[in-house]
Amino acid sequence: MEHKKTYNAKEIKTPHGNIIIEGPITPEKLADLEFHEDLVAFRPPAQQHKALVEIARLPEGRIIIARHRHTIIGYVTYLYPDPLERWSEGKMDNLIELGAIEVISKFRGCSVGKNLLVVSMMDDAMEDFIIITTEYYWHWDLKGTGLNVWEYRKIMEKMMNAGGLEYYATDDPEISSHPANCLMAKIGKRVDTDSIQRFDQLRFMNRFMY
């Protein structure tokens, strides 16, 4: 499948200055920008910066960033699901995963996450994909935000809705292990019926295992 990537950008005003939301970003531009030291949710900042550059190099990899001047203060990643996850078992070239989204605490509450998703979906090529995200409460910054799991889940859901992702049921054991965990997805306008059926089979793989 051909992976077209059309760059889009949007400027948003925040109390801490104007932010540019842009992408998909080229690996070269990504490597050239500063990476904020508070982006620590997944791994140390220098390692995460390097990981994002690698994702941007993948044919299907997409990185949308939020930039304050020359510094990345937030990002969202899209790439094929991890080979160890059930979502890769269908070997679907039109199923990609929103793998990570992070915004530094200083800019939270400024609609940065929501706008990262809005800019992601400005690219018409996204209509060729089933885009999924798996939300696990143990990845959430409950301590930093002071929210409980249900308050945080509500915020995550609202943010994903801004990108057109909706809740989908699944029997995936990890997602089913806690009621706050969830699968969300957006099925692009040009996705064929066969792909939608294959996605449904991936969602309910334990259906006949009684």
From TrEMBL:
InterPro entries tied to this protein: AcuA, Acyl_CoA_acyltransferase
Protein name: N-acetyltransferase
Lineage: Bacteria, Bacillati, Bacillota, Bacilli, Bacillales
